[in-house]
């Protein structure tokens, strides 16, 4: 399990998106990438976060930023999520959990005394050279895009 910090090179990956297309982090070279990890499609917090990025997507694009969401859900789940909420950005299916592990966000969680493994909601901001410039560990799902803009 990686422990990444600002200044580290972002781990590369290639995985399928909601349309079954292979996407690599290197596809976004030269752009500031907002890579956000979330636990599960179509749950209240994850939906709020995705819709906040959706509602502010055009202004993020205008500033040269790209948004990529990653969860351990499969392509089919991502497609339903994208369609239901008209999400305009890439959703990566990390059902193998390899990307979650490379970024150190596959962690032990505890809910009501029950321990289980899951995704820690985390946002990484990666510059055009593939270097992590910021990591947001306490994500405000209602204002996720503003948290990013406040840092940039």
Structure description:
The chain is α/β, with parallel strands linked by helices and 152 residues long. It has a single domain (31-151), classed as Glutaredoxin (3-Layer(aba) Sandwich). 28% of the residues lie in helices and 30% in strands. The protein is built from 5 helices and 9 strands, in the order E-E-E-H-H-E-H-E-H-E-E-E-E-H. The strands form 3 sheets. Strands 5-4-3-8-9 form a 5-stranded mixed β-sheet. A two-stranded antiparallel ribbon has the order 1-2. It has a two-stranded antiparallel ribbon with strand order 6-7. A hairpin with a 5-residue loop joins strand 8 and strand 9. The two termini are 28 Å apart. The mean pLDDT is 94. Keywords: Antioxidant, Disulfide bond, Oxidoreductase, Peroxidase, Redox-active center. Pfam families: AhpC-TSA.
Please, what is the CATH homologous superfamily?
Answer: Glutaredoxin
Taking strands numbered 1, 2, ... along the chain, how are they ordered across the largest sheet?
5-4-3-8-9
SS content category: alpha/beta
Gyration radius from CA atoms, angstroms:
14 Å
Shape annotation: globular
CATH topology: Glutaredoxin
Low-confidence stretches: none
GO molecular function: peroxidase activity
Family: Belongs to the peroxiredoxin family. BCP/PrxQ subfamily.
EC number: 1.11.1.24
Catalytic activity: a hydroperoxide + [thioredoxin]-dithiol = an alcohol + [thioredoxin]-disulfide + H2O
């Amino acid at each position: 399990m990686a422990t990444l910090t600002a200044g580290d090179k972002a781990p590369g990956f290639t995985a399928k998106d909601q349309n079954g297309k292979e996407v690599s982090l290197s596809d976004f070279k030269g752009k500031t990438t907002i890579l956000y990890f979330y636990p599960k499609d179509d749950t209240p917090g994850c939906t709020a976060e995705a819709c906040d990025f959706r509602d502010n997507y055009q202004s993020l694009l205008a500033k040269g930023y790209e948004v990529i969401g990653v969860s351990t859900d499969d392509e089919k789940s991502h497609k339903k999520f994208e369609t239901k909420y008209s999400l305009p950005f890439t959703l990566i299916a990390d059902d193998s959990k390899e990307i979650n592990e490379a970024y150190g966000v596959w962690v032990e969680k505890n809910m009501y005394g029950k321990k289980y493994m899951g995704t820690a909601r985390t946002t990484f901001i990666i510059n055009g050279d593939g270097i992590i410039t910021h990591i947001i560990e306490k994500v405000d799902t209602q204002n996720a895009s503003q948290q990013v803009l406040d840092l940039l």
